[in-house]
Amino acid sequence: MRILQFLLLSSGLLASSVHADTRILLIAGPKSHGPGMHEHPSVCALLAQHLQSCGMPLHVEVSQGWPQDPAQVAAADTVVIYGDGLVAHPAAGHLAELRQRYAAGKGLAIIHFALEPADAEMAQLLDDTLGGRFEVNWSVNPIWKMQQPVLATHPATRGVDPFEIEEEFYYHLRLRDDVTPLLQALPPVSSLAAVDGPRSGNPAVRQALADKIPQTLAWVVANPNKSRGFGFSGGHFYHHWANKDFRQLVLNAIVWTAGVDVPAGGVVGQVAATPAYQTIDEAIAKGDLADVRLQLGLNPQRANQGGRDTSRPPLEQAILRNKTDIALCLLAAGADPNSTSASGRVPLHLAVERNNPAIVTALLKAGAKPNARDKDGWTPLHHAAAKNQLATARVLLAGGADPMTLSELGGTPLHEAAASGGAEMARLLLDHKVDPALKSKQGVTALDIARQYHNQPAIEVLSGL
Question: Model-level pTM?
Answer without folding.
Answer: 0.80
